Amino acid sequence: MSINLVELAKGLFTPDVVSGAGATLGEDEGNIRKAVNAIIPAVLLGLFQKADNPSDPGRAGVVSAATAAAGNTDLPGTLQSVLSGGGASPENPWLQKGRELLGTLFGDKTDAIVSMVSGYSGVKTSSANTLMSATAPAVLGLAGNQAQGSDGIWALLLAQKDHIIRSLPSGLNLAGVPLLGSFAGWFSPSGPPVTPVSPVSPVSETTYPDRKKGGGGWLLWLLLLVLVALAIWYFMGQKGCNNQVTVPEEDTAMMAPMDTNANAGAASNLPARESIKVQLPDGSELDAYRGGIEDMLVTFLKSDYKKLGPDSLKNIWFDFDNLNFETGSAKITPESQMQINNLTAILKAFPGARLKIGGYTDKTGNEPGNVKLSGERAKAVQTALSDAGVGKQVDGAEGYGSKFAKFPAEAPEADRVKDRHVSVSVRG
């Protein structure tokens, strides 16, 4: 069985380590765990890049750091001492080595990755910085303990690709970091300009028996009849449960039925979401969900996001998670007004922030129709925000159709619904 450095690294963060880090950094333990689960594959991706490029001058520094850290047989204990009490001081040698290692891996894009981890997990930027600085040498020491010599380290890191792909959180848009552009196909960001590819194995095309050769043909037709019956049952049930407007037959044939936001549309298949209060700078609070657009957007706007620069900012998108439309139209449903109101409040609380709105569909249907519908829905959100008095903070709205969809048209509805959403990008 191949070594999985992702899972081994996660195992270093025992409950005591996470608890100590939460108390020292003043963060929720769940957010600490979420940050760590994003940091580990990010660090491994940086190490993978060094392993995949023999001419990279930074490889020598990585080997040296791995050799120095490999002698540590109690990495959990080290992490606990570094992240608890006074150990988290910036002067801590372990953290200093970690910052040097991050600089070797990511260069001047380190701050961008730290900000993305902060926005994804909900921890402060300073906390994300400390956690990344503590994690990087621990992951490298783990690799050094599992391998023999520099050649063994590179071979081990190159074998981690599948593990890294499976562990990359979908909400962590590392594809927005120019340094990692050559790995864009590993990520699944929600917006342009990077074309996303699903980090999971694509749905394979089903191969059926050749009916000319006899045998199995009747099974195919029976299977198709069953699938048609299930599809009719599903869509009839959806219309009855969601009380949505009936779409003319020619409308459904023309474009993808982008009926709901990705997260909201799949809510019935997900665990119950945690309701939270998101506090704005003026002390007011918004009712929202942990990890929802309000939670992540406010955290991002409170960070030093402007340091990322326009080229990085335009690649970071936040998906609405409670925004629905009537089927086949750009009419926002009444129950979605709460999220529009929340976004309005956020913009008023951050008057210097400007947004762009993007609309997306899955790959089914006619693409010109998909682009048209997704654009109309993005503009509907822009109009709603303008009517609420914050239109000057919205730079524009654009529909991208299925251009950035991750899943093929033949994928299950539970997957394709993730490609149907409206998102916002902070532009300044």
Kindly describe this structure.
The protein is an alpha+beta fold. 50% of the residues lie in helices and 7% in strands. The chain is built from 18 helices and six strands. The strands form two sheets. Strands 3-6-4-5 form a four-stranded mixed beta sheet. Strands 1-2 form a two-stranded antiparallel sheet. The radius of gyration is 24 Å and the shape is globular.
The overall pLDDT, averaged over residues, is 75
Q: Categorize the overall geometry.
A: globular
**Number of helices, where a helix is a run of at least 4 consecutive DSSP H or I residues:** 18
Q: Uncertain runs with pLDDT below 50, 5 residues or more? A: 175-224, 230-271
Biggest β-sheet: count, sense, barrel? 4 strands, mixed
Computed Rg: 24 Å
Termini, distance in Å? 48 Å
Structural class: alpha+beta
* Number of domain units: 2
In what range is the share of β-strand residues?
A: 5-15%
Quaternary state reads single chain
InterPro entries: Bact_OuterMem_StrucFunc (IPR050330), DUF937 (IPR009282), OMP_bac (IPR006664), OmpA-like (IPR006665), OmpA-like_sf (IPR036737)
Protein name: OmpA family protein
Transmembrane segments: 218-236
Subcellular location: Cell outer membrane
Tags for this entry?
50% helix; transmembrane helix; alpha+beta; transmembrane; OmpA-like; 428 residues; membrane; 60s Ribosomal Protein L30, Chain: A; four-stranded mixed sheet; cell outer membrane
Walk me through the topology.
Elements: H1 5-12, H2 15-25, H3 29-51, H4 59-70, H5 75-83, H6 93-106, H7 110-121, H8 125-146, H9 149-158, H10 161-167, H11 217-242, H12 249-254, H13 262-265, E1 275-279, E2 285-289, H14 293-302, H15 310-313, E3 317-319, H16 337-349, E4 355-360, H17 367-387, E5 394-399, H18 413-416, E6 421-426
Domain OmpA-like: 312-428
Organism: Taibaiella chishuiensis
Keywords: Cell outer membrane, Membrane, Transmembrane, Transmembrane helix
